[in-house]
Design goal:
Layout (H helix, E strand, L loop, with lengths): L1 H16 L4 E5 L2 E4 L3 E6 L2 E7 L3 E4 L2 E2 L4 H44 L4 H20 L6 E3 L12 H17 L1 H14 L4 H22 L1 H27 L9 E5 L10
Antiparallel strand pairs: 1-8, 2-3, 2-7, 3-4, 4-5, 5-6
Helix pairs in contact: 1-2, 1-6, 2-3, 2-7, 3-4
Length: 264
């Protein structure tokens, strides 16, 4: 039962996510505060921009030319501008999940059912936490790939969403079994007919979710373009500032973009 429900939800959200073919990877932790942007490894700063203009590498403040200074400022500006897009992408993803949940369980259990109401409430609480985390003035951290330290939008965030869905489904398993039984009876006990009904429901749901996913796709495209620009500026910094030429802190892979040729 849980596998069936999970499959339907994944189908709903996956159809939208598939359009956003942009993969961001961090080779260092990233911490953004009101007065600095810092890349770190094992909690130790390795690359820091202070006041969005002064570059500090391994604790050493660098003397920069005017052109180098402009690159640093553009780099900092780009990173800060991407943060609201990350926030909007997270919120859009949660909204899409709420829509998928409502469509799924309202179809199985009827409108205003307990599981839809509970899941929607829990996910709206997550939205509130996202908004608080990204409030102006709050320090924001993103982990390096594979790092296990707490990260609001990292593994703990994914685990929280999974736990919310799993707990709600477990608490409503009786109602779901009854609903599924009714669906089977409506198919005359024919499991093939029941499977066809569920497949048809999945196809209809995918169509509805695709129609609702335009906003999330727009946020994804905007974030992808922003990260491509940031990555291109980083490449220019590496070529013009010897102290940072060995760093490749942000990597972006996009299906239809050659990053090394992307212009600012």
């Amino acid at each position: 039962m849980k596998t069936l429900i999970a499959s339907i939800l994944l189908l709903a959200t996956g159809s939208a996510a598939a359009h956003n073919a942009c993969n961001l990877e961090l080779d260092a932790g990233l911490r953004i505060t009101g007065d600095s942007i810092e890349f770190y490894d094992a909690a130790q700063p390795i690359y820091k921009i202070v006041g969005d203009k002064y570059l500090v590498v391994n604790g050493q403040a660098l003397t920069l030319s005017h052109a180098q200074q402009k690159l640093v400022e553009s780099y900092a500006k780009g990173i800060r501008a991407a943060v609201p897009e990350v926030r909007e992408m997270a919120l859009a993803g949660i909204d899409l999940a709420i829509t998928g949940i409502t469509l799924t369980f309202d179809n199985l259990l009827g409108e205003k059912n307990q599981i839809s109401a509970q899941l929607t409430t829990e996910l709206n609480n997550v939205k509130s936490d996202v908004n608080r985390y990204f409030s102006a003035g709050n320090p924001i951290s993103f982990n390096r790939d594979g790092e296990d330290t707490p990260d609001f939008l990292g593994k703990q965030f994914e685990t929280r969403i999974e736990r919310i869905v799993e707990t709600s489904v477990q608490n409503s398993i009786g109602s779901l079994m009854i609903a599924m039984g009714k669906e089977i009876l409506a198919s005359g006990g024919d499991m093939d007919a029941f499977e066809q009904r569920m497949n048809k429901f999945g196809e209809q749901m995918e169509q509805q979710m695709n129609a609702r996913a335009a906003g999330m796709e727009a946020h994804g495209d905007k974030l992808c373009n922003a990260m491509l620009n940031i990555n291109a500026i980083e490449e220019q910094l590496k070529h013009t500032v010897p102290a940072v030429e060995s760093f490749n802190l942000i990597r972006v892979n996009a299906a239809e973009a050659e990053i090394t040729q992307h212009s600012i």
